[in-house]
Amino acid sequence: MRLDKFLCKSSEHSRSQARHLIAAGAGTVNSLKTVDPAQQVHENNCIILNGQILLARPSRYIMLHKPANSICSNVDEGYPSIFNYIDVPAVDDLHIVGRLDTDTTGLVLVTDDGRWSFNIIRPQQRCEKVYLVDLRSPISADVTEKFSTGLLLHGEKSLTLPAKLEVLGPRQVRLTITQGKYHQVKRMFAAVGNKVVKLHRQQIGSLALDVQESDWRYLSSAEIASFNL
Predict the structure, then answer these.
(1) Predicted structure pTM score
(2) What angle do the packed helices 15-23 and 3-10 form, to 10 degrees?
(3) Which residues are known catalytic residues?
C-alpha cells in the first residue's frame, strides 16, 4: 500500500497530515529516509514516524444495506453518502467494493483492504452478484434464454457474459450476473425492450444481505475468506 495510507492505518493522522509529515522527512522505511507519500510499503516493513515504530491496524470489512437516494461516494454529492450510515473511526480510509446507483438499494461491501476488494471486482474472478428486479412491463418468455446466451448492450462491442434469470412474477425477476459494466442490469433489460423500475442487490458471492436498511455490520473471518478464491 502507499506510505501515506499506511500512516493513516497506524496512527490518528488524516491523509493530508500523513503526506505533510512524510514530505517533511519525519518517516523512515527500513531505516531509509523517504519524502514520497506514494512510496509502496508492506506491513512487514519497519516503518518509523518521529522515532516511533508504526503497526497498521487490522483491515476492516463491512456489509452495509444501502437505502435508496444515497450515493456510493466518500462525500455527499446532492444525495447523502453511504458513509453517513457507518459509525467507525477513520471512515475516510474506507472505500466501496462495487458501487450501486443512487436509486438502487441493497448490499454494499466496504473495506480499507485494497487487495481484498480488487480480488472481488477483477473481471477474472467472475464474482456473482444477485439482484431482485422489478420491471415496467411483463417479462417476455424468451428473455431468460437471451440472458443466458448474452446480450449486446448499446455502445458495446461484445456480448455480456451468460446471466441467470429466475422469473418470480410477471414483472419481477431475480438476476445473477458476473460482470460489473456501467448500469449493466438496467441496460440489459433496456436491450430486450423493458425498463427497470426498482433494483435491489441481494447477494455478492456467497454473502447474502442480512441487515436492515441503513444498518451495517462487520464481516466474519469466514465471510472475508470466502472471497479469497
Answers:
(1) 0.85
(2) 120
(3) 101
